[in-house]
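INTERNAL TRANSFER SHEET
From: sequence group
To: structure group
Subject: ABC-2 type transport system ATP-binding protein

Please process the attached sequence and return the structure record in the designated field. Keep the field labels unchanged so the import script can parse them.
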Amino acid sequence: MNEMAVTAEHLIVIGRGRLIADTAMDALAGYLQGDVLVRTPHPEQFAGLMRAHGATVVSEGDGALYVRDLNAARIGELALAELSPRGASLEEASMRLTEHSTEYRTGGGAASKEGVR
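Return from structure group:
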């Protein structure tokens, strides 16, 4: 069948002498969606989340889950609200570099009476 997917533009499927499908390959590919492999340190919780959103989940036992009925983009949306690296500003970088070599610091508690003259 993989050869057909590469070479055919239109597909006719016959089963038990009856026409089952007469469709363009693109339409059939959209109908028969594959699954998405997900690896997670918490497979039970993740599988529950996927099932709550209508997915079928098959566990392979090593943390691998095969998720059907949801595409990879939707799985990502459900798993994360945002995942993006955030760089420090020049000011933050400067403060971190010099935090142990400053003569005067702010914060950290009230000065004792003996320390103030």
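Handover comment: The beta strands are 10-15, 18-24, 36-39, 56-59, 64-68. Helices lie at 2-7, 25-31, 43-52, 72-79, 90-98.
Transfer complete.
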